[in-house]
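Repro case for the chain-ordering regression, as requested:
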Amino acid sequence: GAVVSQHPSRVICKSGTSVKIECRSLDFQATTMFWYRQFPKQSLMLMATSNEGSKATYEQGVEKDKFLINHASLTLSTLTVTSAHPEDSSFYICSARDPSGESYEQYFGPGTRLTVT
Amino acid sequence: DAKTTQPTSMDCAEGRAANLPCNHSTISGNEYVYWYRQIHSQGPQYIIHGLKNNETNEMASLIITEDRKSSTLILPHATLRDTAVYYCIVRVNFGNEKLTFGTGTRLTIIP
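-- result from build under test --
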């Protein structure tokens, strides 16, 4: 299947700083990518839908000014956690669908574990 | 999207078939049943999906009841690497419809 990568895989930052997470589709072009957050022992929660060349669509309760999403190319979406706090510590996962394929399954990245100290 | 109900956890002996049930009694006629799994600290992995016919691929089989109100994912010969959380999701197949994850079933393969 299609491959989605994320960078970095792990990041530790101090409270108040900003962190950028990259999501790349390696062998296909993705007009839409999705960003999820997962706290320990919980399920994945969709944060936002990232659309290439336009603004992201955020789920209810997700602060768009805190979680900045940029989808500047068909293979790259970035999530920036601004002014991070310890409660933002979580596992962040992106996904993308290959629009050239016949099926509609989404391919997920390996995730980025963010720890805010 | 319609909601799904899955058992919280299941155990299965290595080498045996693992049968994971899912209830989706409010599924709509145009909604597909998707299965994903998530191994610890990794991103979810697509397994299989279907509309109303049974489906089989190299990973698993999907059995959907005739009324489509429930389904079963079958891993024919479970290995230790199949230990994961398995998510059953129903969704329509158009455009970039988002996935809504429930709590899933934590499957543990016992040596």
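Ordering looks correct now. Chain B has a mean pLDDT of 93.
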